[in-house]
Amino acid sequence: FEKYIPFQQIKLENREWPNNVITKAPIWCSVDLRDGNQALVDPMNMEEKIEFFHTLVDMGFKEIEIGFPSASETEYEICRELIEGNHIPDDVTIQVLVQAREHLIRKTFEAVKGAKNVIIHFYNSTSTLQRKVVFKTDMEGVTKIAIEGAKLIKQLTDEYTGDTNFRFEYSPESFSGTEVENAVYICDKVMEALGSTKENPVILNLPNTVEMCTPNTYADQVEYFIKHIKNREACIISLHPHNDRGTGVASGELALLAGAERVEGTLFGNGERTGNLDIVTMGLNMFTQGVDPKLDFSNLPKLREIYERCTDMKINPRQPYIGELVFTAFSGSHQDAINKGMQYMKDSGTEYWEIPYLPIDPADVGREYEPIIRINSQSGKGGAAFVMSHNFGYDLPKKMHPEFSKLVQKKCEELGRELIPKELFEVFSENYLEV
Ligand code: KIV
Ligand code: ZN
After folding, report:
1. Could you tell me the pLDDT band of residue 87, with boundaries at 50, 70 and 90?
2. How remote is the CA of residue 427 from the centroid of ligand 2, in Å?
3. Counting atoms of ligand 1 from 1, which one is nearest the CA of 272?
4. What are phi and psi of 415, to 5 degrees?
5. Ligand 1 probe mutation, 124, 209, 221, 238, most atoms within 8 A of CB
6. Residue 123, H or E segment
7. Residue bearing the CA closest to ligand 1, atom 5
8. Which residue in 48, 130, 202, 250 is a FRET match for 302, CA 20 to 30 A apart?
9. Predicted-complex ipTM score
10. What's the confidence (pLDDT) of residue 14?
11. Which residues pair with 209 in a beta bridge?
C-alpha cells in the first residue's frame, strides 16, 4: 500500500482538499458465514463453512460472525465443530448472532461453551416501521425487550464457569429507520444493563438494515449517535451497511469518517437482497490511497474461486478489483497511456504507482493487466501483430504485418465476427507454421 499516493497529498486547484480522509483501517468483522450465508439459495454445508472460515482467518480477520447457532441444528453443529475441532486460532474471536429472546440466548450460551473468545451479538428491531407494522408496540416495548436480553446475557456470563472471554454486541436492527434519538436512548439503556465500561466496552452496531437513504444521511445519523450516546468511552461504534441503493461501500466510508471504528461486511458483498458492504472493495479502496487495510487481498483469484464454489454465486465482470474485465483496456488511447505510464515508472524510478487508467497494480491482487486488441475486419495492421507478440510471444517482422492482417480480415469476414486470440493464432499457424 505504500506505493499509492495518499489521497490527502493530492491537491486540487491549490486548495487543501479533501480535509477528511480515511487514514487507518477499522476493526473488520466478517459476517459472510451469517448474513452472507443466510441469503444463499443453498446455505453452506459444514465443510464449506469450515473452509470459508479458514479463508477468512488467513486473510487476517480477527472477528468473524460464524452464524446463528440458536436458529437451527445445522448452525448449532457447525458452531460446535468450529470449537471442538480446534479450528479457531487464539487471537480470533467468533461472533454469534441471537435475537433478544430468552430461550435463544440460553441456547446460544450452550453453543459457544469452551470457545476462547466470543462476542454475543444480540439484536431486536427498533425502526418506526417495524414497531408499527410487525411488533405493534412502541419505543418502550422494544426497549424492554433489549434491556431484558442484556440483563440475561449479563447474568449468564456471570454464572459461566468456563474461561471464555465474553464480549457483547447490541444491534438496534434497522437503526437507519429508527428515530436517531430513540436509537441513542435504547443503546444507553442496554449499556447500563450490561454494565459496559471503558475496559469492557460493548460494541454498538448500527445497521443500515435496508439502505434507505444517501450515504451522507447514514453518516449524519452515525455522527449524531456518537455525539449523544452517554458513555462514549464504554462503547465501540460499529457499522453494518447493506447495499439496497448500491451505495453500501460509500455509506461505510462516510460513516467511518463520521467517527465509527468498526465495520461489518462480507467478501464481494454477499448478503441479503443486494448484499452487505463489500469488504474487498472497501479494503482495497483504502489500499489504493496508501492506507494499510490490515487484510490480505494479495490473491483475489483464489478468494474468488473459494467464494464462488462455497456460495454458488457468480462475480459480476465489472465488480471492482475482481471482475473479469476490470484490468482490461479496450481503447487504443487507454492502452497507449498505460504503456507510457509503465515506461515513466521505469525511467523516473518514482516510488509511487503512477499509471493512468490502472488505479491499482493488478499484481498487488494477484492479477495481470490485459490490453484487449480488437481483432475484426476493421482492425489496423498493428493489432493482430500485437496479439501475436503479447499473447503468443511471436514478434512478426514489420514487413509481414500487411499480409497477415489481410488473412485475418478475410477470416473475420468468413465468420462474420471478430476473432478471439486463439483463432488468430490458428490463422497464423495455418498459413505460416503448417507445411
Ligand atoms: O442487517 C441487519 O440489521 C442485521 C442485524 C441482525 C445485525 O443483519
Ligand atoms: Zn445485515
Report:
1. very high
2. 53
3. 1
4. -85, -20
5. 209
6. strand 117-125
7. 173
8. 250
9. 0.99
10. 59
11. none
Average pLDDT of span 384-403: 90
How many Cα atoms occupy the beta-carbon half-sphere of 369 within 13 Å? Answer: 17
Confidence of residue 370 (pLDDT cuts 50, 70, 90): confident
| pLDDT band at residue 15 under the 50/70/90 scheme | low
Ligand 1: nearest atom to the Cα of 205: 7
d(CA 255, CA 22): 11
Stated length of the chain: 435
Supply the DSSP symbol for 131.
I
DSSP string, 85-117: TT-S-TT-EEEEEEES-HHHHHHHHHHTTT-SE
35 is in an annotated binding site: yes
Does residue 373 register a pLDDT over 90? no
3-state secondary structure 269-306: HCCCCCCECEHHHHHHHHHCCCCCCCCCCCCHHHHHHH
Q: For residue 279, how many C-alpha atoms fall within 13 Å in the half-sphere facing its CB?
A: 31
pLDDT at residue 387 is higher than 90: no
Q: Please tell me the residue having the least CA distance from ligand 1 atom 8.
A: 35
Burial of 85 (0-12, 13-18, 19+ CB in 10 A): exposed
Residue 73 has pLDDT above 70, yes or no: yes
Compute, in degrees rounded to 10, the torsion defined by CA atoms 198, 200, 63, 241: -60
Distances 175 to 69, 182, 401 between C-alpha atoms, Å: 24, 9, 64
pLDDT reported for residue 389: 87
Mean pLDDT of 126-138: 93
Dihedral through CA 23, CA 227, CA 138, CA 126, nearest 10?
Answer: 10
- Report whether 334 belongs to an annotated binding site: no
Q: Is the CB of 35 under 6 A from ligand 1?
A: yes
Identify which of 174, 199, 197 has the alpha carbon closest to the alpha carbon of residue 186: 174
- Classified as helix, coil or strand, 266 is strand
- Rounded to the nearest 5°, which phi and psi values hold at 37? -65, -40
The pTM of the full predicted model, rounded to 2 decimals, is: 0.90
